[in-house]
Amino acid sequence: MSNGFKKKMASELSQLLIPLIALGILILFNLIRDPRFFSIGVAVNNDGNSVLTGNLISIIDSASELAIIAMGMTLVTAACGGQDISVGAVGAISGAVFVKLVQAMGGINAGTFAAAMLLAILVTVCFKLFNGTLVAVFRIQPMIATLILYSCGRSIAYWINGDATPQLTSPILTAIGMTIPGVPVPTPIFCVLLVSLLLALIFRFTNISLYTQSVGINQGAARLNGINPILIKLLSFVLLGVCVSVASLIGISRLGQLNHKTLLVDIEMDAILAVAIGGNNLGGGKFKISGSILGAYIIQMLTTTLYAMKVSPVNVKAYKAIVIIIIVIAGSPVVKEKLRAIWKRLKTGRVARKEVA
Amino acid sequence: MQNDVVLTMRGIVKTFPGTRALDGVDFTLRKGEVHALMGENGAGKSTLIKVLTGVYEKDAGSIWVEGSEGEAHIHSPQDAQNIGISTVYQEITLCPNLTVAENMFIGRTKGSRVNWREYEKRADELLSNLGIPARARQELSHCSLAVQQMVAIARAVDMNCKVLILDEPTSSLDDKEVEMLFKLMRDLKSRGVGIVFVTHFLEQVYEISDRITVLRNGQLVGEYPVSELPQVELVARMMGKDLDDLADLEAVGEKSAGSQEIVYEAQGLSSVDCRPYDFSIRRGEVNGFTGLLGSGRSESVRAIFGADRVTGGKVKVRGKYVKITNPHDAMKNGIGYLPEDRKRDGIIADLSVRENIILALQVMKGFFHPMSKAQMKEFADEYIKALQIKTASQDTPIKSLSGGNQQKVILARWLLTHPDYLILDEPTRGIDVGTKLEIQKLVLKLAEENMSVTFISSEIEEMLRTCSRLIVMRDRKIVGELTGDQLTQGYVMKTIAGGEQ
What we know:
- The structure holds two protein chains of two kinds.
- Chain A is mostly helical.
- Chain A has a single domain, classed as ABC transporter involved in vitamin B12 uptake, BtuC (Orthogonal Bundle), CATH 1.10.3470.
- Chain A has 16 helices and two strands.
- In chain A, helix 5 packs antiparallel against helix 6 (110-136), helix 5 packs across helix 12 (229-255) and helix 14 runs antiparallel to helix 15 (313-330).
- The two termini of chain A are 28 Å apart.
- The mean pLDDT of chain A is 90.
- Chain B is α/β, with parallel strands linked by helices.
- Chain B folds into three domains: 2-239, Rossmann fold (3-Layer(aba) Sandwich), CATH 3.40.50.300; 256-334 and 421-428 and 447-492, P-loop containing nucleotide triphosphate hydrolases (Rossmann fold, 3-Layer(aba) Sandwich); 337-418, 3-Layer(aba) Sandwich (Rossmann fold), CATH 3.40.50.300.
- In chain B, the strands form four sheets. In chain B, strands 5-6-7-3-8-9 form a six-stranded mixed β-sheet, sandwiched between helices.
- The A-B interface holds A 8, 11, 204-208, 210-211, 213-214, 217-218, 220-228, 285-286 and B 305, 307, 326-328, 331, 337, 339, 344-351, 355, 359-360, 362-364, 366-370, 395, 413.
């Protein structure tokens, strides 16, 4: 029984092994470099709330938008065998719609906030359905299908809101972007938990996981088993749309302003990277959302580490690239196969030695 | 006699990873003959032609072409053209938006300045000479498919080809167009061109060919003058059967004709790949579609299941009219379908044996009603035991199982849905003999339990052992329905072959 359980854990973990090791090495590296890197303190912020501070909190907090979008990206990747590169630009549209709506409704209160949020989500989902239709119905490569919105999404955001960067001040936004009074943990972290929980519930009460994997692995066979591949692909884009909209809202709340040029900028590449670092096949099929979340935190920890080492922002990207190449190669099929062979040899060696003894 | 030969291929071998597509094949083509190259799908016809035209490099063997010194070295389609071998493929490989003349001379013009007037004149001369109803300045896309094909042939003729290969040229032509093409072929014959004719249509072989070479499983069966190989013999050779050897086979169980109740009935059912046909099956009946590979039997059953786009017909299930336009409709009406190509259409390779078993049932239960893990495990265990599926565990990915065990998993998938009517398309292909017998026995047992089954197999013995009624197809049409005493190997083959024999 315990043996069976162990085996199961092993197979569950095998996909997450490389990202977990990468995370472990990053943590270890930081501890050696600066033992106080992960120390957590308490400070009082401008609003008079006591909040937790420290690198660890800031890493988990800042990775929130990326983690949320990576979850949606995982589903699109699994179902369509390709990636959506328009998430940043569509996030800007979502933000512009949200700001336009709350301004039109005369300022932020609980009611206008909820209404504007729901409408922004709806608009984002429509844009994602446009992408999804190109992919699922017209069978256009996902990257090409989303290239259109990638290049024109921020222009659309500009048309909606003009060139201004409207400032928004409201306790509600502060509560979402920073902390809720009385709670010492930044709210975006709870948003990640909420979205994960929501997805976990959807996975528990529907067949989306089985259908998505079937469509991603063998679309023709899935169809012959009564699954509609078009609907499943559209569904993955719808869920990604919700994720993008939520991430956009967090981004706006954090800064208290909307800047269509910088909101969620370059997040699409990091999101795809998070999916890949999480051990998911970018060609579609089997997937693990937890892997992508882990990937998002690894990317953020890497960035924070580099900044803590006083690497200038201009050079951060280059250093990041080097580490990421190492992680991706370590997780590649070729290296995995080699590692497995070495592991097997070590194991049989150990057994043999035991027998000799 | 030897001087007549334009092309000799000896001991051609071509292997692909895992298969020997050509195994020491000989082929000889003489001047001014139409030589039919026959064999079922996968027999090696296409491979042989691709070796000849330089698409594939042969692994061993030699090729001689008349007019060239010594052995011919064909490494690319260009090489083949240069020594006089031209091919007209099933799909037209010309440019539809260019004119007829441009299509005939493109890539063959000399110098940097091209005098198209001159070429157009030459094209018109050749076209009228060959009796092809097209004009040089016409855009190719304005010609019918048959004429486009003839333009391709005219291009080959103008290149002084000695060997012309026509790969399934008639598959999308109507009867009149076929006649036109044959007239052109006879004309080329009289000019001394050797023609290799590849087709699925047996009647056409006997209408136009002088000689037949038969391949089976990558090996040469033989070369015969048409007059010495009656149609039924040809079919027997293609299937690898000996007509003299019709020994009675060990029965696997009692065949079942079923009860009176009709479970499924179709009138004028058609799909994008299948012509309208009528069909019905009774409760507990086992029947089968037979015919050569490519005769349309798979396409017919796919239409029943809604696997291809259904274009017409009325369907009754258990006496009530229903609409079946996609696999989900069919499943809801109690129909299951095990596809012909297990790898392409059956297995979800990376998913576990358990997930592959419960997939169809899970889809029928619906998107919002996932089964519990415990229930899935129970179902998987039950069927792994019942069908004796050899797998390390339920969690093993199906792709690491052997072919026979993969097939059993797909079979388990459909049995788990408890269909009223199960369609098995080539369930025994590529699996070991023991498993084959198991599957045949299972089919008869299912019929005893009142399931209706349509069973398709390339091996006639298998169908004779299990089916009480055989629907015979040829050239995408139903040409016979055999029951009772007619169910003998000889009679079935005669029906498949057609003609007076």
